[in-house]
Write a sequence for this structure.
């Protein structure tokens, strides 16, 4: 297996390519999500940005929050600063997670982009489209709460460009706001338990979203035969065989079982699921996510 190059994978380069990808698409029209329950008598349907003065929750202030955004009265009762969030801000928030594990760096040929490069490009392009539509974008963990603006896109590009040494990343739900939306992008070939926990936590908070599985074509076709050395991208696992072709049927069965498991999880939690191959146009995946986030 050959890990292909990741051209122009710096934060600025990634952001520029993502904006180029998003340019042909119409801006995603911001639509406030319907709250789980209407607590005020006579109110039905969606809450929109124009009625966004109702308090929703406090969250811990982050380094990029301005002094003006901090609720000093609430902060005075604790040892840390807090920011007050409104209903409409929560409803128009989308949280992203892109698998930062080493396994996402795989590319079967130098002619194809690594899965990580494609996943980050799609995620940031989606953030560009959402930002143009007036929506707030952040991460599913607590590192980057949802915000709007080009500064937010720059911070997002910086974080998405980071990688970890482990083979597979694990999504975290610490940044999921109730009744918001989320997008998870990964090959979903690692341990499934963190994904199950994430979707369960999301369902408990009324969060819906989309799962995008990004695969290299070789991971679906398994074109290996004869003597082959299989090694994880981190180097932690290594297996050598003289008859790689004998493993094909078992591998494809396990891949089908994993997809069926993901489909069942998505169905049970009200999420959308799709598979994107790195040999395909990134625009097709972006268009699918654009549509999937509008389904509620």
């Amino acid at each position: 297996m050959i890990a292909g190059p990741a051209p122009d994978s710096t934060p600025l380069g990634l952001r520029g390519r993502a904006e180029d990808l998003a340019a042909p698409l119409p801006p995603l029209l911001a639509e406030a999500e319907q709250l789980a329950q209407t607590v005020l008598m006579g109110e039905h349907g969606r809450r929109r940005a124009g009625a966004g003065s109702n308090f929703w929750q406090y969250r811990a202030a982050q380094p990029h929050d301005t002094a003006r955004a901090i609720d000093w009265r609430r902060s005075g009762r604790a040892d840390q600063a807090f920011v007050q969030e409104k209903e409409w801000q929560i409803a128009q928030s989308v949280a992203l997670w892109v698998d930062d594990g080493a396994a996402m760096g795989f590319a079967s040929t130098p002619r194809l982009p690594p899965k990580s490069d494609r996943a980050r490009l799609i995620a940031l392009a989606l953030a560009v489209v959402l930002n143009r539509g007036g929506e707030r974008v952040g991460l599913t963990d607590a590192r980057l709460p949802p915000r709007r603006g080009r500064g937010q896109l720059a911070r997002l590009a910086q974080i998405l460009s980071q990688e970890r040494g482990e083979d597979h990343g694990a999504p975290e739900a610490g940044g999921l706001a109730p009744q918001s939306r989320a997008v998870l992008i990964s090959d979903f070939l690692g341990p499934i338990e963190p994904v199950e926990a994430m979707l369960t936590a999301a369902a408990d908070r009324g969060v819906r979203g989309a799962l995008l599985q990004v695969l290299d074509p070789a991971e679906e076709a398994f074109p290996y035969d004869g003597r082959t050395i299989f090694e994880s991208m981190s180097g932690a696992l290594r297996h050598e065989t003289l008859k790689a072709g004998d493993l094909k049927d078992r591998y494809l069965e396990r891949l089908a079982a994993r997809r069926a498991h993901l489909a069942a999880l998505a169905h049970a939690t009200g999420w959308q699921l799709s598979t994107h191959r790195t040999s395909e146009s990134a625009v097709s995946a972006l268009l699918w996510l654009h549509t999937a986030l509008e389904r509620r």
